[in-house]
Design brief:
6% strand, two-stranded parallel ribbon, 34% helix, globular, mainly alpha
Length: 70
């Protein structure tokens, strides 16, 4: 399963909404026999800590390529 974007408005952060959303998505994945969740996020320490707290870990399997066009 791929989570393309998870966003909670700054006004509603620290209320457990992100945790509830992520847990619900995981429940849906389990019900559909999904064995792995893949997500991308920016390089924010706070976001990294959140996902680690939720049981996620980083991987070196993905390489990101970018090309800026003139």
């Amino acid at each position: 399963m791929e989570i393309k974007e998870l966003f909670v408005s700054p006004h509603y952060r620290s209320l457990g909404i992100g945790q509830k959303l992520l847990k619900k998505m995981e429940e849906i994945g389990k019900a559909r026999d999904v064995g792995e969740v893949f997500l991308l996020t920016n390089n924010s320490r706070k976001l990294g800590q959140f996902y680690e707290y939720m049981g996620y870990c980083t991987t070196n399997d993905i390489v990101r390529f970018v090309k800026i066009l003139p």
